[in-house]
Fold this sequence. Notes:
mainly alpha, MetI-like fold, 0% strand, disordered C terminus, cell membrane, transmembrane, MetI-like_sf, membrane
Amino acid sequence: xxxxxxxPLSPAAPRSRWRQACAAVxxxxxxxxxxxxxxxxxxxxxxxxxxxxxxPAALTPRARLQASSETYxxxxxxxxxxxxxxxxxGGRLSIALAAMVSAIAVVAGLxxxxxxxxVRRLDAPIMRLMDGIMAIxxxxxxxxxxxxxxxxxxSMVTAIAIPEIPRIAxxxxxxxxxxxxxxYVEASVGAGTPALKVLWRHIMPSTINPLVVQATFVxxxxxxxxxxxxxxxxxxxxxxxxxxxIIAEGRPFFQRAPWIVLYPGxxxxxxxxxxxxxxxxxxxxxxxxxxxxxxx
Length: 296
């Protein structure tokens, strides 16, 4: 009796990018730890309306400068406001502002970098403009723009995002300059493919990895810049809690009530540390040259 021919085995389906990303995170303890810390800080900040036991703007003069207790877990400030509520709401404000700054800077920098790197006649004028913006200290430019536009969310996001755009534009431009000389790009151009389609299908995908890494560093820089502006008194109004303004308000009472400065400072430091560590680990994972150096 003749046996039936064996059916060809179908090749194993490649793992999805989501599974590959999860496996990469689990294999890297630094990336996993920083990601968990970042997710924890984001969760408690986003959940501030449910986790905060008191209104962050409610004044309780009788409870001013109280230490940690069952009623006020992190104590109170000089006006009797609950410090835990103010730190959580301040963290939510910093995270939301950093996300908006990162999105605006990445999109604007991507468009400018693609134009400068692909269109040769636009390269020189665009890069000279970017060099001019980078010549101005970012904090000084942010202070000037906030002073002119007022302390509102639009002026704050714009003031913090503009100094970050040239850095992303230069990064994207360098990637475009190296990719546009590849044979598959030249073949696509020679076949008469429109420029926008070449940028979208062949060049822009090569910028995704460095942009993702750079976005994390922009987030950390935005959080720190917003805190500095708040500390200098150029941030949001006093009724809106921010980490920088909380630290500034507690500075005169540091010797008597050090928790007013320590707790928001620790939260701010952990938030920036988690973002930077995750960005470093992500860069090492996405950059094959760094991976080879590490293995070597």
